[in-house]
Structures are given as structure tokens and as C-alpha cells.
Amino acid sequence: MSDLQMDEKHYFEKGWWTRKDVRETAIIWVVLSAVIGYGGSKLQTMAMGDPASEVMENVIRIIQIFTWVAAPVAGLVAAICVHALLAKRHHGDNPPPESDHQISKSPRASAAWIVVSGLLCLFALVVGLIALEQDTENLFDQEAIHVNVVGQQWAWNYDYAGTQGVRSQVLHLPVDKAVIFHVTSKDVKHSFWVVQMGIKIDANPGYVTETAVTPNKIGTFDIRCAELCGLLHAYMQNKVIVESQADYDAWIASQPNLSQTDPLAAPEEGGA
Ligand SMILES: [Cu+2]
Questions:
Q1: How many A from CA of 233 to the centre of ligand 1?
Q2: Over the stretch 1-42, which tens digit does the pLDDT of each residue have?
């Protein structure tokens, strides 16, 4: 029998899970998994603010599911480290007799680790693909309104298709109606990010990218640039005002008619 097989036999001898160090590590594992799962899923998503679309609700749900699924893996690694630090201190030249548990060379332990990680990756892939499929549904909504988004150093401008040439620097949207964004840039790469609605897409010069969402909450939310785009990147942000359909229609009607004039010659509109 090789050394390796003997080591494995020794480690997996009958009743190995009743050993003191294994039990202590298991308790730390459970506690750390709960702390990592709760901290990661609750505190992390609390900082994101309340969702203003179903897409964002999906994003938060996925973060919570993935965090809880990953927590036992992170918890196990941390538990072994913590237990080793607390209980496995050794002083002297000769290693203690129990230091020969060669779990790292155990084919069974390696196989279990690979299979479990593989299943977790597969789970993440399937859940992610399902969410991605749901999130793209808005793109095919025939009733959607269309907004052209142009990023430039360091501002966003919005043009509303099908209106009298309405342009604004604060985005207005009606609640509970799909909106499709056609996004581009005048200069460098930016990234159009509607924070509480959970959508983010690159704004590339000479190219139009598309994303879509249905805002489901009335209020004012944040829009930011999510691509480092120069000196004032941090200030490239403005707001989206989600309002009732009537308020939105009234706002559109109140805007100057730019369709007959050269939009570049018209004064910039500051929004609400
Ligand atoms: Cu930018």
C-alpha cells in the first residue's frame, strides 16, 4: 500500500467525523456560513436601495441566492483557517503526530470538492441564464417607448422617439411601461447605468447598444456612468423621474417643439 493510500485510509478511518478537531471545525463552519450568508445577502443588497423595476428585484434575488449558495464554500475554507490558527499552534522542531492528515492528497476529498464545485457552477449558470432571459423580455415589448441615450464627457442626453423632438438632461419615464434605450457615445466609452432599475450597458462611440426595462415605482432614481471615462467621470450622473402616464404626457407636451428646427441650434433643456 502506498503512503498516499495509507494517509487516506488513516484520515477516513471509521468515525473520523467524531474527532474533536473535525467537530470543532464543523461548528465554526456552520457559524461562519450563516454570518457570510446573512452579511453578504442582506447588508450588501441594503446598500443598493429599494428596487424600482422587476429587473432589479431579480438582480437582488440572484445576489441573495448566489451568496447563500457560496457561503458554505467560503465558510468551510475560513473555518479550516480559523481552526488551524486557534488550535493547531505548535512550537518545537518535530511536527505533532496528528499533522500527517494528508487530505490534500486524498483522491476522495479532491473528487468531492470538484463535484460539489462543478454542481455549484452549473447551478449558477442555469439560474443566471433564466434571469437573463427574463430581463430581455422588455426588449420585445411592442408597446415600449424608445429613448435615445447619448453619453459624452461628462453628461447624458435623452431624446424621446415619436415626440416633437423632445430632448432632456434629466430622464422622464412613465411608470409601468416598458422603455427601450438605444445607447451610444459621442467621444469615449461610457456605461449607461440606471442604478435602482438594475440595468447597465456600454455606450460606445459609433455603435448603438440596446437595453430595456419597465419602471414599476414612481419616484426619482439615479443614473450614473459606470465606465471610467476621464477626469470628471465621477460627476457624470443625473436623475430619472418616473411619473404617472398623465404626468409624463403633460411633461412631453410642455416641452418646446424642436422637430421643425435644427436640434443642435436649439437651447438645451434642463429637465424638471
Ligand atoms: Cu462616462
A1: 5
A2: 445 455 555 555 556 677 788 889 999 999 999 999 998 888
